[in-house]
Amino acid sequence: MKTYEQFEHKADVGVRGYGKTVEEAFENGAKAMFEVMVNLAKVEPKKEIKIECKADNLEELFVEWLNTLLSEAGIENLVFGEFKIKEIKKTNPGYKLVGVVQGEELNPEKHEPKVEVKAATYSQLKIEREGNQYIAQTIVDV
Amino acid sequence: MEIKNLRKINDYQWEIPKTGKMLVPGIIFGDQKLVEEMDEKVKEQVQNVASLPGILKASLAMPDCHWGYGLPIGGVAAMDQNEGVITVGGIGFDSGCGLRTLKTDLTLDEIKSKIKELVDSLFETVPCGLGSRGKIILSKKETDDLLKEGTKWVLKNGYGVKDDLEYIEDNGSFEGANPDYVSERAKKRERGQVGTLGSGNHYEEIQYIDEIYDKEAAQKFGLFKNQILVSIHCGSRALGHQIGTDYLKVLAKASRKYHIPINDRELVCAPINSKEGQRYFMANLCALNYSYANRQVIVHLTRECFKKIFPGAKVETLWDLTHNSARWEKHEINGEFKKVLVHRKGATRAFGPGREELPENYRMVGQPVLIGGTMGTCSFVLKGTEVGMNLAFGSASHGAGRAMSRTKAKKIWWGQSLLEELKQKGIYARAASFSGFAEEAPGAYKDVTQVIEAVDKAGLAKKVVRMKPLGVIKG
To answer: Max Cα separation, chain A?
Structure first.
């Protein structure tokens, strides 16, 4: 069964993650986004970074998660390949996410860079449950 | 888009009548074929924008319009200064993204045999591609100064000549840009990025003028047949993307706080005069300043390359514009000149003759309107018109506009063979990423000539010259 995919958009790219839990769908959504930028299979887990983020609702939390990953990667010149969300907690108000991600320094020779993702948007943003799986998706601006 | 649901104003203007929550009608510019080929989503987005508080006259879509997030790409919306809102969806994450065109005193014959050398030199000198960084590392204070002063700071530090400033929209520097409203995260992401091209549809292209439509205007702009030009397309890099990202969150909260009725989450916004709206506006001016500065440094690097290969050649700025912005401008609204906030997303400012914002030697002609084509086709310089001022707050298209998704393009084209294909046409290309290059295949875009004809016939701007590509570097 596929865990993540990209879907078509005229100017940009859609990223979609599937999972048995919301956490897993978020993790796989992140994989779909980094696959837009590089060849994910070439990324080794040499560095680990802790990620924490908050938002008013689950949909915005997904975008916040993706955008936090983009800025962490950008600041440290990293690329991520492994994503683990420890938990998504309902807070009052909103939601909080705690996770760790692994990757290494971006190396154009090794990672086969494709296109830079500028940001995750609110376009076609959806967190849904379909049967026994969750889907997290949005459009990323490239 | 179903044409039967639109009201035809003339061959190049189509109205989406005001219905439901729309406060103003929508107007789509383009010939019937272009409009029919636009996605139904464009209509929906134009309608949603037409429902934003304070929108004036009409929600507009340019002939190259396609489905984006928030405003469609090619969307224009002017807001009342008291009642209006400001939205990230009306500017985009790559705020300040735009085009700089340089004019040289070289001709096609003089440069032909050296294209490869020139393109290779540019590819080595101008950092491009995913996460690219350059040699200018700014301190914290220098970053703030650059954000405040834009191109002026860059010039002070030796990357350009004074004459450049006059031919950059807004003189490359907005007063009121306040780096205090730009997050530390955004400033950290800047590190080493000023003077870099980035990726996606960004490029630097060597072109020659192959057709002149308006002799008089071409002369005023200093353009002649077979002249070599250089066009640079890029934006505000990670710093700008982070400013957009930060304020998307702020505006999502503001929309709830101020109970703004929005039909679409992508249009989260804040009243211009609210604390949130003001802060976003001032932070965004920093992104705009940065984008002008970024292109200025690339111009400097470009001149270095020319100096090596063509010593003594003149490389001057024809014009620099941004096609992702929100700016205060004066426009005629119901017979009265008013200050309005114009959002242009993937749309070029195209001011007509007489505007005080234009440099003296262009003022009687109208501003140069730079429209970039695709790699294998052609680009254009047009001039702004009086008609365009009234029809579209002085706006025109920004490019060819995508006709096909990136995913689909990659299935059809392959980077390496595309390079060969371009070579057959006499275009020498270098790309940081083969896959990214394939996504930008000329066939994935609308026919730029058709878009330009529609801009010209609608009267938004008038054709001056056409340029053909000789060499290109892609991110």
So the answer is: 46
Q: Which amino acid is at B77?
A: A
Mean pLDDT of B33-55: 96
pTM greater than 0.80 (yes/no): yes
Q: Is residue B170 scored above 80 in pLDDT?
A: yes
Amino acid at A53: C
Identify the pLDDT of residue B405.
Answer: 86
pLDDT number for residue A96: 98
Write the secondary structure of B242-280 as one string of H (helix), E (strand) and C (coil).
HHHHHHHHHHHHHHHHCCCCCCCHHHCEEECCCHHHHHH
pLDDT tens for residues A66-121?
999 999 999 999 999 999 999 999 998 899 999 999 999 999 999 999 999 999 99
Q: For B117-167, write each residue's pLDDT tens digit.
A: 999 999 999 999 988 899 999 999 999 999 999 999 999 999 988 899 999
Other beta carbons within 10 Å of B333: 15
CB atoms within 10 A of CB A10: 21
pLDDT digit string, tens, across residues B356-400: 999 999 999 999 999 998 887 899 999 999 999 999 999 999 998
The answer to whether the CB atoms of A64 and B249 lie below 8 A apart is yes
B129 touches chain A (CB under 8 A): yes
Alpha helices, H only, B349-414:
360-363, 386-392, 406-412
Q: Shortest CB distance from B94 goes to which of A55, A77, A118?
A: A118
Write the DSSP symbol of residue B72. P
Instruction: Work out the angle at residue A110's Cα, subtended by the Cα atoms of residues A104 and A113, and round it to the nearest 5 degrees.
Output: 90
Quote ipTM for the complex. 0.93
Question: Which residues of A have a CB under 8 Å from any CB of B?
Answer: 6-13, 37-38, 55-56, 59-60, 63-64, 67, 70-71, 74-75, 77, 106, 108, 112-116, 118-123, 125, 139, 141-142
Which of A114, A118, A141 lies at the smallest CB-CB distance from B435? A114
Domain boundaries, chain B: 7-474
Rounded-to-integer distance, Cα B344 and Cα B87, Å: 11
Query: Would you call A6 and B265 a contact, using CB atoms and an 8 Å cutoff?
Result: no
**CB pair distance less than 8 Å for B130 and A106:** yes
In this structure, how many other beta carbons lie within 10 angstroms of the beta carbon of residue A59?
18
Cα–chain center distance at B210: 23
The answer for B 345-404 residues in CB contact with A (under 8 A) is 402-404
Q: Is the peptide bond before A93 cis (omega within 30 degrees of 0)?
A: yes
Interface-testing mutation among A7, A121, A125, A127, with chain B (most B C-beta atoms within 10 A): A121
Rounded to whole angstroms, the Cα distance separating B368 from B318 reads 8
CATH 1.10.1760.20: does it fit domain B7-474? Answer: no
Cβ atoms within 10 Å of B81's Cβ, excluding its own? 14
**Is B398 tagged catalytic?**
yes
Over residues B242-275, the pLDDT tens digits come to 999 999 999 999 999 999 988 889 999 999 999 9
Q: Tell me the nearest-neighbour CA distance from B299 into chain A, angstroms.
A: 22
